[in-house]
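@channel sequence for tomorrow's demo:
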Amino acid sequence: MTDEGWPGKTRGACCCSAVFLLMLLAVDGLSGDLDAARLTVWTALATLLFVVLLPSRVTAGPGRLTTHGLLSRRSIRTDLLVSVHWSDGVAERLVLRDLAGAQVVLDPRVLIDDPALWHLFDVGVRASLGRGTLLCGATPLRELSRRAEREISRTVFELSGGGPAPAGGQAPGGACIPPGSPRRRGRRS
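structure tokens (generated this afternoon):
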């Protein structure tokens, strides 16, 4: 199963870098300063922008989640997770680590926006909880579960002809809550 939104995000990165290059070439062309050296520099800058904007492609299978970057491929076993946490920084990132020490960092929106990927991830997390390997990450998983279920409920509501779902409506959470854990509203562990 592959992230359904990846092709659109890739086209967006390509379009942004192409527009950036065209703007730079237009400004230089209109000012009369465009030459081969400047064309090379502007093309390199546009290529760098594309590399920065290009999202990792996320694929999942039974018990496995993989991110494919431009030059790297990282894979973890979701049925053998040991920790889940939110990374600190400008962009929201979910950091997953499995029993073998492998680590994957991804945008949580990828899981939230794709019900099929979410389902495969959730099944793996439940297996980790059942095996007792997942020792750290109950709070991020509860928050992620609430957000994914809310998005899925909103989509089902809209597809059933109910119109736009109310912004404040929430689906029942707890798909990834370990038995006996208290429900808290905190986002970070």
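heads up for whoever presents: The helical segments are 6-31, 36-53, 108-113, 115-131, 138-162.
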